[in-house]
Amino acid sequence: MTLTYPAELHYTASHEYVALTDGLAVVGITSFAIEELGDITYLELPPVGRTVTCGERFGTIESVKAVSDLYAPVSGVVRAVHGELVDAPERLAEDPYGIGWLLKIQLTQPEETQALLTAADYQAQLGG
Amino acid sequence: MPHSPLYECYQREAKLTEFAGWNLPGQFAGLTPEHQAVRHSAGLFDISHMGQIELMGNRILWDFNPLVPTAITHLQPGQAQYTVLLNPHGGIIDDIIIYHQGQPGAKLIVNAACSAKNLAWLAKHLPGTCQLVNQVLLALQGPQATGILQTLTADVLQAIPRFGHQIITTKLGQIWVARTGYTGEDGWEIQAEPGVGQALWRELCDQGAVPCGLAVRDMLRLEAGLHLYGQDMDETITPLAAGLGWLVDWDKGDFIGRGALTTQKTQGLAQKLVGLIGTGRRIFRPGYPVLAQGQTVGRVTSGTLSLSLGRPIGLAYVDTHWAKLGASLTVQVREQELPVTVVKRTFYTRPG
Fold first, then answer.
1. Is B334 in Cβ contact with A41 (below 8 Å)?
2. Residue ranges, chain A, pLDDT below 50
3. B270-343: which CATH topology?
4. Domain A14-111 falls in which CATH fold?
5. Smallest CA–CA separation between B12 and chain A, in Å?
6. Closest Cα of chain A to B216: distance in Å?
7. How are strands ordered across the β-sheet holding B136-141?
8. Residues forming a β-bridge with B329
């Protein structure tokens, strides 16, 4: 897989990405994280309607190699969950920034997004 | 970090990983295609990191016999035996295969991380000489392994039985082949000079063998119910607890650790190694607690999501009372308790 970090996205140090559109944050994990995990076997996501808080665990992702927590990059209410991906988590690796989205969160603290990393910041962190 | 003499054959296509201090292929095309290759055609592994020890002594099998609980003096040249080195407490120093080469020589293949301690142990207990050698080791595993290897030699490979071994002449040079492996499939482990080994790697790939990494090897060996030293057994675990009682020949006379094993056999085991199978897709990993009726009764030592079965499988030490086949237990997988069943440790058996 080619590792990419689209410039229009926002990132966390824990390898989530956020795409901001009209008050909704589309959340996924980066191609780097997927590469590190390897073959993904299991995904656990919160139900629609759940309130998540920035920095708190919202789910679990497992691969044959490792198990990792997923952390909310922003606070808000879960408006959509990618249920098909829960049934076929291996598909996440096909297109992490497209079909690999995990949650859509309605922001309750929009100012939190200012603390997210730019693509350049995130890549610098990976390099460091 | 050291890497194998085969490094240049695969460095551009492998995802490398650190294993026992070596830089080795963790994976090539991915777990699924590599698993498919070994189960349905043939996979090729670089296992050059494994310890290769040559033993010399005029009575080598008789000298070696007291170091293991298995009777080995009946081995004929060209035969091999899987067994364990034991300490005086009956704990497993390492699991090994001893290949009888014909007096005065024998070859041991041992775990990479145990090479140095094994060598020290052997030097202390054997009158003859023992030395590590650094040849290339390959494993060609799967139903098409023999057919692929046969394209390189006029020697009749089918005549070599399971655990048989011999030096054969190939178009690339002489190689030592043993019908052994760690995947549950028919196949070969091959020792060669580095130059020959490199040519062999390329030729076997050209003949259709699929390069495979250590990640899938771990899944394959677990599906086959094979132990991993350092996870499923160590120096505190006896072969009786590890489900390797079949290695102990009580009629063979004295051997290191015999007294401890006898005591354990008389008193009974507190815990035994069992196979566990679950449902769903969550993997139980080493260290996860095993519970019965809300109480911790054991711990997981190996686990994976079996691609053959589509279910999580694992090995665990559990209190003997709960070790019966069919027992219903749970594994604490992080915040969840997942139901598992105690099953035979051989999760996958090759057809035929």
1. no
2. none
3. Elongation Factor Tu (Ef-tu); domain 3 (2.40.30)
4. OB fold (Dihydrolipoamide Acetyltransferase, E2P) (2.40.50)
5. 14
6. 10
7. B165-170, B173-178, B187-192, B136-141, B43-46, B210-211
8. B340
